[in-house]
Sequence to fold (302 residues):
Amino acid sequence: MIDTVALAMLGGSLRVSTPFLFVSLGECLTEKAGRINLGNEGVLVLGAMVAYATSYETGNPWAGIAAAAIAGLLLGGLHGAICSLTRVNDVAMGIALMLAGTGTAFFFGKPYVQPSAPLLPGIPLGFWSDSPQLRNALNVCPLFFLGLLAAFVMHWGFRSTRMGLRIRIVGDSQDAALALGLPINRTRLFATAAGSALAGIGGAFLSLYYPGSWNEGLSSGQGLMAVALVVFARWNPINCIYASLLFGAAGALGPSLQTVGVTWGYYLFYAAPYVVTLTVLILTARGGTALRGMPGQLSIGR
Fold:
């Protein structure tokens, strides 16, 4: 029984963690430039709807991925442009964007609740095994590997490229950025738009792979939880991978126990991801380490 639960949690971790990985990477990029985007929840939902609708209309799920990224890019660009204005609060604007994104997705997505769109194929990494449980656990979406690649590229970019250095300077010290003549608003606009594009891809995963459908309750607050994951990851893209896998494993706990006949405490086990996240944040906040790695220009740090 323990082996079955472990395998189910392994497969669930790889599946459930993927949207969290993309949204947390997008939020990490945005916050590195000194801006918070709570609107990624709306971007996630809108990306899921746009991806599913595009896949249904074109018959190509990869076209849906591209459309979701473009939708996220446009919505993030809107957020970045408005937040560049004076006396506009990032958090308030993010909440407005979240409501706008989800409302737009619900309105235009109603015709696509029933139709069946082509879904993304999985990569059968467990082909070598005779165990159907292991083969199912290792049937991995290609977007998971794309997310891993994005994390390593982002980590390298922050450390080794001129653009990454500019983003870090703008996010750490506006005075230093002004002294160097860096375009602060333009840099933050780029980071916010690119970060939302990643969040849109995370939404596409939900509708085109797991659970592989479009409905209005698809997200379950995953875009908002990405903010907590970025804090837990200490604004490090590589750590976003570990944080997302941890959250994914916690999210797979309930379904994994159901596979072996454990049905009591159904809602309690499904709340495990939120309990784990809060517990980890509380434990890692001890000893004055809560703000380690946080960009100096974030509103929460002022």
